[in-house]
Amino acid sequence: MKTSDFNYHLPEELIANYPLSNRSSSRMLVYKDEVEHKYFKDITNYLNEGDLLVVNNTSVIPARIYGNKESGGSVEVMLERIMDDNKALVQIRSGRSPKIGALIVLGSFAVECIDRQDNFFILQFDRPPIEVFNSIGHVPLPPYIKRPDEDLDKNRYATVYEDKNLQKSVAAPTAGLHFDDELLEDIRKLGVKMATVNLSVGAGTFQPVKVENIKDHDIHSEYLDVSAEVMDMVKITKAAGKKVFAVGTTATRALETAFMSEDKKGYRGYTKLFIYPGYKFKVVDRLITNFHLPQSSLLMLVSAFIGYDNMKHIYKTAVDEKYRFLSYGDAMLLEKNEI
Does the chain have fewer CB atoms within 10 Å around its N or its C terminus? Predict the structure, then answer.
């Protein structure tokens, strides 16, 4: 399939620049045998006792820092991944790319650009980089949100179940933004089990697929951790004939990667799993997700999950019905239908 097959017209006015005041008040497009239009709080009507809800409990780093080159030019540093030995892999936006050996001033901190990897740079810090980002960093709103970050984003560009000890992502697992504490309690009362995985979301999640043939796409690498306990919960759920609900594409990729491994005692490591039409899902039965960018790997994952024609129909319907799109937008609940 070609990347152009996954294009669709997304009116700019449908991109949500702000979250709704109440998390669970978002609209939810439900696809089973046909399309239904609901609200996210209605998700309790689609969960049953014994089902398993799997969430990604990663926490977002304030990963964007504005600074200056030693020569005086302004720069924007966007963290991709913290590395060993006080180094960080970053994207740098400036009038001219920094040279190797150049110093960059970030607030009261000076860092050195020591290497380049494709479109990324490696910066050397004199302390753990997380300390600098937590000190002066901004909430890394996605590039399609055309406004500066605000105080409200510190709370709303994060899930209510995030684990602050797992502060490793530079983008939020946005499907989980729709859950509030009250809704989660209602779900638990149904007898639904909950499990957490951790996948460190990288900025590459926003990158469009640029090759013509999607099979030639080199997807970004992300670190994940799926415990043996979670894998056992999945097996028990499946054996009982119940459903595994993945909250977001990140939880989906984490689960599917873990069950590809020969070692069924848990999985910890990097994944470059690229899910596109033709992929056979091993774990996930239901997918809770947001509406994704045209020509993105996330849209291709959705297409693999419900079938290409169904994806095209659903996205046209969502545009016609004026759903709110992308990170702060509305949600979908999808039943697996591999075609």
Answer: C
